[in-house]
Amino acid sequence: MSGIHEFIGNEIKSNDVVLFMKGTPQFPQCGFSGQVVQILDYIGVDYKSVNVLADSEIRQGIKEYSNWPTIPQLYVKGEFVGGCDIVREMFQAGELQQHLQENGIAVRAAS
User: Per the database record, which ranges form the Glutaredoxin domain (predicted)?
Assistant: First the structure.
């Protein structure tokens, strides 16, 4: 299983923003993943997505890696931010945008 944790760690370390999700940003396979994609697209953040449905080892591995039971999972600069509910609450409060900017990640200004 360590190979999977290594893969996950590498994805998280080599990309500023990583979303582990069910499906792809173009075709989310669950509503929660879709909501996080909509939020990230709305604030105009570049991110890497990893489809956990493509590989059951990744799907299980990410839950162990973060010690978080659900997908999607959002990482910023190697740090686990949270799942759908946390991301949505942070976004609504303006905290997600602030967190990204504090980490040097460009976000689109609210119109």
Answer: 17-81
C-alpha closest to that of 25 among 44, 8, 47:
47
Q: Please list, in sequence order, all residues whose beta carbon lies within 8 angstroms of the beta carbon of residue 62, skipping any fewer than 6 positions away.
A: 8, 20, 50, 52, 71, 73
State pLDDT tens for residues 37-96. 999 999 999 999 999 999 999 999 999 999 999 999 999 999 999 999 999 999 999 999
* Strands of 79-82's sheet in order across: 48-51, 17-21, 73-76, 79-82
Task: Report the C-alpha gap between 97 and 90 in whole angstroms.
Answer: 8
pLDDT reported for residue 50? 98
Q: Tokens in use for 71?
A: 């997908």
